[in-house]
Amino acid sequence: MTYNSDELVQYLSLTNLTQLRYVIDADALEVFQVTPGGKRVLYAGNLSGWLLRECGQEGEGRSEKAEALLRDIREGTASFQYEFQVKDTQYTVRCKTESDPSGKRVCYGIVESLGAPSELSFRRESDKDAMLDMLNKKAIIEYAKQRLSHPELASYLVILDLDNFKMVNDTYGHMFGDTVLVAFTEIINKAMGNHGVVGRLGGDEILIVTNGIPNKAALRPFLREIRTNMELAYKGKLDGISLTCSIGAAAYPEHASSYEQTMVLADKMLYLAKDKGRNRYLIYTPELHQDYVNSNQHAAPGPKKPIKQYNNIGILQYMLSEYLIKQASCNDYVFEQIGRSFRLSEVLCIYSRGTIGFRWTENGEGLRAEDMEFLDVDDPFLDQVDENGLYLMDGRYLIQDDFPQLYEKLAARKIEAAIFYRMMKNGKPDGYVLFAKHHLRQKWSEYETIALAVAAKIFEIASIG
Fold it and tell me: Of the candidates 363, 366, 385, which has an alpha carbon nearest to the alpha carbon of residue 432?
């Protein structure tokens, strides 16, 4: 935000470092500089006189931020920080109120001219995104790098992207997708106001560089507002698609010493938010996320991979040896290991005999009576499987027109993506296995498809034996 009035201009423009000392109960203010020649007093008197000289009469153009700063000085707020834009220079004001040895309450402050980049430096047409009301990738990265080269300017890097945006584009077209991006931009800009500079990294991925947000407690309301408003904007308006956003954030210089390191942490938090179910924000906290970050810090550049809390190759080996060959393991244990290993929301196995079935869910629900009738083994839908007995559903919306009843059943179970495997016995359908997810950031990978097909085949062989 740029302040064009004369408020605080004289005070902020004096030098690179200005100090103030305000004895609250005595209403005695001293503004000064420490120079090689000694202390240079710029003002000595009461706060009202200084306010009149520097800012003019109350109500004559003072900004809300200036009023808040002056109020915090007058009232002796324990600790506060503000940032100001005056002409082409950025300033930070940091104050702290303490009791001096005589017991008097004193507000001590430092005003520093940082010469750091400002929003004014990025107002050229070439710095704007071609479609959205924000900076383009080059400009936002340049701004972030320059700001995060000043440790005295505490900032958060916040990375956001839309959940299921590709599905929206594929279903409703890219023109509609553009209107979604515009709406997303408006939500972000309205929430952040003067507390951050926003830029587009590419596609639906947005970067915010915050200013004047000192800690996680202060940051959360901004992120919560963005997340909530994005969820509400399209709730119930898109058939079978939940259009929300996921957010990852990290602090500089608290937890990283450079732009690059902070971006890595924020990016990992974004991916973890996706992995935990989307539609949420995560702010990097060492005691919660350090192990995850360390476990991935040496990964080679390339596509991101999910957290491996379970060994999904090992579970297949276990199924072959202990479950199938030795028959030394129960269904409940194997189903749980598969579900957790592949980060599924549900695994359902139903046999044609109509009385045998197994179910695992991530919240611990077991098999229910209605599960036995979820999908008949002779249902025409299962004729859609390929030569390997598989049907990959990357989005529930794909079957809405052709199989509306199954679509409604999947919607009731909140299943967004699934792999179906039709089991056979003596050349006839003998049941099916359903591997399901409530959320899917990308299409089922080739590895997931092959591995889960092997697991389903093991169930099939075990039932025949």
Answer: 385
